[in-house]
Design brief:
Mean pLDDT: 92
Strand content: 15-25%
Number of helices: 12
Strand order of the largest sheet: 3-8-4-5-6-7
Low-confidence stretches: none
Helix content: 40-55%
Amino acid sequence: MHETFTHQHHAHCESGVFTSLLCHHGVEISESMIFGIGSGLFFSHLPFVKVYGFPLTAYRIAPGGIIKRVAKRLGIRLKFETFRDQEKGMFALDQALADGRPIGLQTGVFWLPFFPPAYRFQFNAHNLIVYGKEGDDYLISDPTLDRPVKCPSSDLKKARFSKGFLAPKGKMYYPVEIPRELDYRKAVSKGIREVCSKMLNRVHSLVGVPAIRALAKKIPAWPQKQGEKYAAAQLANLIRMQEEIGTGGAGFRFVYASFLQEAGDMLGMDELLVLSQRMTKVGDRWNSFAYKAAPVCKGRKKGRAVYGELRDILLDCADQEHGIFNDLRRIKI
């Protein structure tokens, strides 16, 4: 079976895994289209939710949300399974592989030996594909890597049943029914509407553009309230979530820009092409935020002035995104 599976390198694990699974079943679809239809773009900053000692900042929707939304909007039926018993979970995986299916898994990054030690951390929502088994080793297609790898059974078991926040509980999934005709126009429309609704929310300042603004306004006070050391550490965590987790804040903006461009070409809508260009510029601006923050994180720059500069960059990102999503929601698809 594994000789027929083709590994694909993608930007993000969840959208990449689902793209590869669908392509294996004959659906020609890009990762950016998966990300856009799945309403992957998001922002939230939750000061009262601490992850490893720092407030939770998210640049994409909750793990698993992209796959579920794409499947629903394109009429694809998936099978999801989780397990309490680890041995039953591994047996079910072996049975699915014996049936000739590549299988999507949710795993904990810390236990995956094919990642360098510096990249292993306690993140339990990393998606990958198992497409075969040789002896005691599983054949892995991880979309964040440029080539397939092998993983010993004992390590994959630990990764599938890792404990803690977002524990995967052995989750495995795969398509069981795919329509012959996929209504991309309707799916694109629904994907865009949901992103616009969440990014332009008027309920509170914890989600979307209001959350970006709220975070930006707090940053200049961090050194005085928390001390320079903790302020720099909190900023470093924010940048790490933006630049290193998945494709992060800036990277997700570029993926979404690619989605708007592809949707514009597919549907013959020049308005989407223009908004794609504007979204790319926002991604560049988020990158500028990380670039300016790096010396602060390393202790080379201190003081309220530099934090004020970072605030201004984020406020500019918020203003640009507010304009983009306002214009995007007015387009009739």
